[in-house]
Amino acid sequence: GYFSDLPIPGGGTSHYIKSATSADLLTWNVESGTRISLGEQPCAFMHSDGSTTLFYFKAQSTEPRLYYATASDGLTFSTEVQSTINGNGPDILQLQDGSYLLYYDTSGSDGEFYVGAARMTID
User: Fold this and answer.
1) Distance CA 3, CA 57 (A)
2) 110 CB contacts (<8 Å, ≥6 apart)?
3) pLDDT digit string, tens, across residues 6-52
4) pLDDT tens, 79-102?
5) pLDDT at 64
6) What is the CB neighbour count within 10 angstroms for residue 80?
7) What's the rounded Cα separation, in Å, for the pair 112 and 100?
8) First-residue to last-residue Cα distance in the chain
9) CB-based contacts of 70: which residues, under 8 Å, 6+ apart?
10) What pLDDT sits at residue 13?
11) Which of 37, 63, 71, 96 has the lowest CB atom count within 10 Å?
């Protein structure tokens, strides 16, 4: 599993993503090291070849956006890609036709919060 520290209002913006393993999904062991620096609210997608793509939010950039990075071993995420989506709290669902939807939290120009969705192709 992947997790981030909890952003606290006024508490700074340096957040990170770590990982943990569990044999029973009740007891977790945090793995050493940080998976993604300056990221938060991860959502993992496991590929059929065993690699993992993490989707996550970065508030530290000049334009807060959703990012993603892939690791062949699920631990070492090297190439980070900035998406065009300004939102956080990503979640991915596979539809019956095999395509994917990425859901995320976003806000409108009216100051209200909404759930956004983007159709995705995942290789």
Assistant:
1) 12
2) none
3) 766 666 667 899 999 999 999 999 999 999 988 889 999 988 899 99
4) 889 888 888 889 998 888 888 899
5) 79
6) 16
7) 26
8) 21
9) 47, 51, 52, 53, 54, 77, 79
10) 63
11) 96
CA distances (Å), origin 37, targets 49, 91, 105: 25, 20, 21
Q: Which of 20, 7, 13 is nearest to 74 (CA)?
A: 20
Helices and strands in the chain, H and E counts: 0, 11
The CA-atom distances, in angstroms, between 35 and each of 26, 39, 66, 102, 111 are 22, 9, 16, 21, 32
**DSSP labels for 37-86?**
ET-EEEEEEE-TTS-EEEEEEESSSSS-EEEEEEESSSS----EEE-S--
